[in-house]
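worker-03 picked up job from queue 'complexes'. Input manifest follows; two sequence lines, order preserved.
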Amino acid sequence: MTAVLEAHGLSKRYRRRWALSDCTLSIPGGHVVGVVGPNGAGKSTLLNLSAGLLSPTTGSVSVLGAAPATDAAQLGRVGFVAQDTPLYGSLSVADHLQMGSRTNPRWDAVLATRRVRDVELDPRQRAGKLSGGQRAQLALTLAIAKRPEVLLLDEPVASLDPLARREFLQVLMATVSEQGTSVVLSSHLVSDIERVCDYLVVIVSSRVALIGEVDDLLSTHHRLVGPRADHDQLPGNQFVVEASHTDRQSTLIVRSDGPVVDPRWTIEQVGLEDLVLAYMGQSRDSGAEGGRP
Amino acid sequence: MIWLALRQQRNQLLTAMALLVIVGVVLLVTGPNTLHLYDSTVAGCASHGDCPSALTNFKAKTKWAVVPEDLVMVVPALLGIFWGAPLVARELETGTFRLAWTQSVTRSRWLWVRLAIMTLAAMVVAGALTFMVAWWSSPIDRLRQTPFGYFDRHGVVPVAFAAFAVVLGAALGAVLRRTLPAMAATLAVFVAARLFVSSWLRPRLWPPIHLTTTFVGPTPSAPPTSIAGVPGERSAWIVSTTIYDRSDHVVGHNGGIGSNGLFEFRQANGSRAADFVGMGRCPNRFPVPTRTANASPFNHAARECVGSFHLHAVIAYQPASRYWPLQGLESAVFVVAALLVAGFTWWWVRRRLL
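worker-03 finished. Artifact:
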């Protein structure tokens, strides 16, 4: 299967600041991919590059095997929900659906109407008067009803309250299972990602810090707790992601391809949140602040 | 895509339509009055032998008649400001371009459709307004010496101005990405372009005809800055007049002689005579004509004096027969400019806004 998202040496610079540096990744289809990282790390840049709203400074990106937004057909294969879900404030909900149907050949009017009814949007309401949650739902409806092969969602739930957030993600998951759409969604909250994603990309300081299927990542990372020790004594197939020490005890988060067999350490499971935080901390410690590779 | 563009611009289009109807009704109601006034004063004045007073009467009552024509001047700029500038800028400003450009419509098509719709609509609005105003002011126009006096308020040029203004607004909006600065920039650039064309390019679009004639002015009724006009071409547009002395030195431009006027009438307060100041070779006192007194002794003396210098003038002029070709030429200039700016906008939106 073609990669949903593939990038080679992808970089984007805004004036003097690198928003994304040397990003190389290949994400297989059929996943719900979470792109996670601190604010300003480059998540949005990656998604906007993938939607064809930005062009790379260097490198290349392809979505479903083709360059983004090259023609109408390619645009039709990709659904995009931008950050803060921009909508035409003076146009009604019904107008937005009309827009969707007029500008997308594969538009699913039945689905759109049903979704609008399900989330209790008044078709006559102007988009400018919708709440944040309603806006997000309408934007998602527009993206889903064009029947894309991949949905790109840029911080779709960032501005939503917890309830709206849960509803949004539920609807998203229902669609994914119904239509088999691949999803790439970004968030700065691991809890959202944890709930729905089975594939993870961690971007910190404009670089990809970690990428892989969530299950694989969880099974190859361990938390080692033991007496205070320096971690340069670990075997060669183990990499320390994060180390914290107290006077007597060391806690390491370690990436290891094989099982960790060392009687000095107590081995614990790492949660996704801790794992992501460990990688974010690592990149910060190494001082990579958006510099050029 | 056409639907979306129309839906988004619906309010603007409807507003323009409503205003056009209002202006149309006003012109339709007041138009016959002007025509009637013309018929009752100027049209039959020759038979009554009171043309000067009829003319004064008519002109006094139609002083405000410049308003509709000024409207024709202003509307293209307004269209550029309120239709053109927000066309791309507002989408960039509000972020909705992210919605628009991720539907199954390419960015190029998105731009061309909305640009074409608004440009054509602006041309229709400007054309309709110009047509209505031309009809309305036709009695007034009959009294004007040259159609070139209302060159950019009549004919087809306002339509081309409108097309250019809208495209210009869209381009500046794309570059500046903010509606308000784009509006201001549109006004500034549009006015500058119009001034450049009307004052510099227009006289050069088609090389004017040159005519050498004896310089006979000035006279008190025709002040030093005017010249008799082109013989046989009463309604020609005199682009420039250069005055030479006997040895072909330039002594003056556009009817005046010398920068301060080698000839100048100076009338002492309350005096019944005027001095001819400057070359000082003429008998320096003329009987001053008044409204009641006959001007011809003065004119005669003045002409004789000026004639003694053997000046000649070269008049560069556009004959009235060139009015429509020049209208077409200037329109073409603005339409081509609009196409170039549209091409730039397309390039910018496709390549630079990434």
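worker-03 released lock.
Chain B touches chain A at residues 1, 3-4, 7-8, 11, 94-99, 101-107, 109, 351, 354 (CB under 8 Å).
Residues 209-318 of chain B form one domain.
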